[in-house]
Amino acid sequence: MHTATCLCGAVKVEVNTNLPAPNACHCSQCRKQSGHYWASVDLKSENVTIYGEDNVTWYQASEKVRRGFCKTCGSFLFWDPIHHDTIAVAMGAFDGATHTKLALHIFVSDKGDYYDITDGLTQNQQ
Predict the structure, then answer these.
(1) d(CA 6, CA 12)
(2) CA–CA separation, 70 vs 104, rounded Å?
(3) Which pLDDT tens digit goes with each residue over 28-56?
(4) DSSP 121
(5) Total domains in the fold of the chain
(6) Beta-strand (E) ranges in the chain?
(7) Which pLDDT score is estimated for 105?
(8) Residue 50 maps to which CATH number?
């Protein structure tokens, strides 16, 4: 079991499975919402329980995706593809050891010009 929380603790997430390898998204939406690139892990929705969901505000980022954040502290917690059985949870929200490592970078064609990706991981342009 893994737990994650927002900065103020109003939202808590429990994940009842091992975490797969996360990715780092460099798209303009993730950069603007997080302030940099955003690392998250994709999980089956059935393995994720959200407590304090009334404190989550959902932003409809496109026809296909909504983004969830704590309405109290603003922590960006979720990337939720609509009509799918998965949800992405922010790696930075997890409490304690995650026992996983970043696997790849996505949307690197949109990355900021102020940093380089030098970790040797796979870089997908989109």
Answers:
(1) 7
(2) 27
(3) 999 999 999 999 999 999 999 999 999 99
(4) -
(5) 1
(6) 2-5, 12-15, 23-25, 38-44, 48-51, 56-60, 65-70, 76-81, 86-90, 104-106, 122-123
(7) 98
(8) 2.170.150.70
